[in-house]
Amino acid sequence: MSKKLFLITLILSLFQHLNAQIDEEWIANGTGNTYSKLQSLTGARPQVPCGHGSFTDTGHIDEIMDTELNKHAFRFAMHASEDGNYNQCNPAEIKERQRNELAYNTAKPTQKVKYTWYMKLPSDFKTTTNFNYNFCHLHQIKLRDGSYSSQPMFTLSAWRDQLELITSTTDYNGDRVLASEPLANFLGKWVAITEIINYGDTTASGAYGIQIKELFGTQETLFTFLDNNIQTWKGFATNLQVKWGLYRMRTSIGGGTVFSDLKDEQVLYDNFKVTYLNDGEPIQFDAPKVLLTLNATNGTITVNPEVANNVYDEGAEITLSAIPNDGYEFTRWEQDASGSVNPVVITMNMAKNVTAVFTEIQTEITSFLLTIESINGIITANPSAEDGMYEEGTEVLLTAVANEGYEFIRWEQDASGSSNTVAITMAEAQNISVVFSLLLSESDIDNQITISPNPVKTVLTITNTSDLEIIGS
């Protein structure tokens, strides 16, 4: 294609975008030069950084394969030290700002319009901590002419540790924060953003709404603002510009040292869509989705009604029932539910975290005393109890051990038998004794043995000799 034909095509494309209100769609597909492709699709030159000699303008927006989307996505790159604003290309100029944005120029819509897109901020995304300049704009709608030309009407910005929606639509000078949520909620995940605007005019109010949902996982609603009676136009403008990308301060106003904590960033976008709605109805969104997180140890929590991933419509009433494991009982609710009523009803007017506390059931323990008596030996018990007290039902193994010169004979009282080991079960208090007997040897017998009948009539005395054999003991 000749340069002249390309120029004519570009002019015609620009004319169509400025004068015709047709639905648009820009989706990454991984083919061709991304910069040229977006310029042709939107009718406007992407506002990419310049002054970065080793990194071409067109290289600041490219396409990469994303595993979560399972397709290509647009990657917007920003470099802390090298990149300058798109209109600060002279190396001698002070590069106090950095901008890498996709721009869509159009005439003021005469009907309600919906902008939708996907966005993913990196998990370590941050703005500078410099108090006066710690912002990074991610999306803007700006006037292109009229009394307030180039002034943004709505801005979605990472500002300090918040994601903020800012308006400058009032005719006085100054911005106003319409809504904000912690920036951490949006890091490291794909989000789907829907923005709907009914553009009013200089005197009549319009309508504006924006909703951000997690694209995967729980798909809960992370950010919502809606006002069907808000100023959305001013200064007799006739054209506007819609922008997506990165816009941040690199140094303080007038230039100087680059903020030391500014870092290189890569933000992903995809599925840009512009849809014109001719319904004449007030803006409305599906009910925001909020996440219920449940925590329980030694039991479970059931939910009625059940929904996928525990993500509920905002305002839904749900019933929680705490079910203890065997041996435990429900005690109380904690965090976003309280009290000891079970089941309990809660209203999901926001994301909630509920914990059920279960405690072990304390049963009365019955114990019995084991009393052991032994002379000329000892009795060992397994298991042993220092105080002799055993829980009801405990089986105890007793072993009789005779002292030297003695031998075990039998158990007595609450145990019986002639084996030196016996097992007892502690069903009641028990008293156990053992009988040990003296062992006799030949030397223990006198030289004379007297045998007498009973009653005594005759006494027989046997005198021991060396040949006397003793049998028994």
Average pLDDT, all residues: 84
Given the C-alpha coordinates, what overall shape results? elongated
Counted by DSSP, the helix tally is 2
For the secondary structure, the number of strands is: 30
- How widely separated are the two ends? 130 Å
Any idea what the radius of gyration is? 45 Å
What ranges have pLDDT less than 50 throughout 5 or more consecutive residues?
5-12, 14-19
Instruction: Bin the helical content.
Output: under 10%
Range of strand content: over 45%
Q: Structural class of the secondary structure composition?
A: mainly beta
- Please give the largest β-sheet: 8 strands, antiparallel
Q: What this model shows, in words?
A:
The protein has helices spanning 3-19, 34-42; strands at residues 24-26, 61-66, 71-78, 97-107, 112-120, 135-143, 152-159, 162-167, 176-182, 190-198, 206-214, 221-230, 239-249, 265-277, 289-296, 299-304, 311-313, 316-324, 328-335, 344-348, 352-360, 367-374, 377-382, 389-391, 395-402, 406-413, 421-425, 430-438, 448-451, 460-463. By secondary structure, it is mainly β. Strands 1, 2, 3, 5, 10, 11, 12 and 14 form an eight-stranded antiparallel beta sheet that branches. The protein has a six-stranded antiparallel beta sheet with strand order 4-13-6-7-8-9. The longest helix is centred in the first third of the chain and has 17 residues, at 3-19. The radius of gyration is 45 Å and the shape is elongated.
